[in-house]
C-alpha cells in the first residue's frame, strides 16, 4: 500500500452523505474509522472494513484527519465541543452544509481548540462520491489542504478555493442560485409551451441548447463585470427590456404564473431608471450587489 492510500481517516456522521464518504475512503484503501449517533448505520461500512469508534473522542483520536458530515453546524459543534474531545494537532474537514459565517466562526473555534480546520462543500449526490463527477470544494489554509489532498482526493474532484474559510460555503450557495434560476426558467418556459400541447420532454432539448448557449456568454460578460464597463456589444438593456415586456404579456395572456418574468423586468427597469439603458445586460450586477431598493 503506498503513502497516498495508507493515510488513516475518520468520518463522523454516517447519514446518506457520510456513508458515501466513508465508503469512498475505504475503497481507496484508507484505514477508515467511523462514528455515528445511530450505530446501526455503520454496519455495511464495518463489513467493508471500517473500524468503529465507541465515541467521538475515540474517533478523532484514531486519525490525523477527521471528516465531519452531519445535518448542520450546530450539530457538528454539539459533537466536537464535548470536554473529552481533544482536537489538538488534528485536522478537521467539515463537509456539513452551512453558510460562510458559520464556516469562519467554526474555523476560529477550531483554532482555539488547537485544530487545523478546512471547511468544505459537497456539490454532488451520494451515489457519485468517489467518482470524478463528485465535486468537493475546500477552503482554509492551503498547506492544510495540500497535506491531505491525496486522502481527500478519494472523494472525487477535490478543489481548494483559497485561504478564506468562507469560500466553500459561498461557492455552494452561488451554485444553488445558478441551479434554481436555470430550473425556474426552464419550468416557466415549459408551462407556457404546455398551453400549446408541447410536453416537457419535447421542450427540454431546446431549453438545454439555450442554457448551454447562455453559459458560453459568461466569460465575456464576466470580463465586463470585472472591468466595471458594460458597452452594448451585442444588445442594449433598453432592447432587452422590450423582450422582457413581451415575456410578461405572453405569460399573462396564456394564464401562467408571471412572477419570474415580472422579477426579471423589474430588475432591468431599475437599472434603466438608474441610467443604464444603453449598456449591456451584465450592468445588472449593480442591482444584484446591494439590498433591494424600493
Ligand atoms: P442525513 O442522511 O439526514 O444524515 C444526517 C447525519 O447527521 C446523520 O449522521 C445523523 O445521525 C447526524 N445527526 C443529526 N442530528 C444529530 C444530532 N443531534 N447528534 C448527532 N448526530 C446527528 O443527511 P445527509 O444527506 O447525510 O447530509 C449530511 C450533510 O451533507 C448535510 O449538511 C447536507 O446538506 C450535506 N449534503 C448532502 C447531500 C446529499 O445529496 N445527501 C449533498 C450535498 C451536501 P443519525 O444517523 O444518528 O440520525
Number of helices: 12
CATH fold node name of the largest domain: Rossmann fold
Bound compounds: NADP nicotinamide-adenine-dinucleotide phosphate
Say how many strands there are: 8
What would you report as the Rg, rounded to the nearest angstrom? 24 Å
Please write the string of helix (H) and strand (E) elements. Answer: HEHEHEHEHEHEEHEHHHHH
Q: What's the CATH class label of the largest domain? A: Alpha Beta
The biggest sheet amounts to:
8 strands, mixed
| Biggest β-sheet: strands ordered side by side in the sheet | 3-2-1-4-5-6-7-8
Separation, N- and C-terminal Cα atoms:
63 Å
Describe, in short, the structure shown.
With 294 residues, the protein is an alpha/beta fold.
Characterise the protein shown here.
The protein has 2 domains: 3-163, Rossmann fold (3-Layer(aba) Sandwich); 195-288, N-(1-d-carboxylethyl)-l-norvaline Dehydrogenase, domain 2 (Orthogonal Bundle), CATH 1.10.1040. Helix content is 52%, strand content 12%. It contains 12 helices and 8 strands. The protein starts with a helix and ends in a 6-residue tail after the last helix. The structure holds NADP nicotinamide-adenine-dinucleotide phosphate.
What distinguishing features does this structure have?
294 residues; binds NADP nicotinamide-adenine-dinucleotide phosphate; Rossmann fold; N-(1-d-carboxylethyl)-l-norvaline Dehydrogenase, domain 2; 12 helices; alpha/beta; eight-stranded mixed β-sheet; single chain
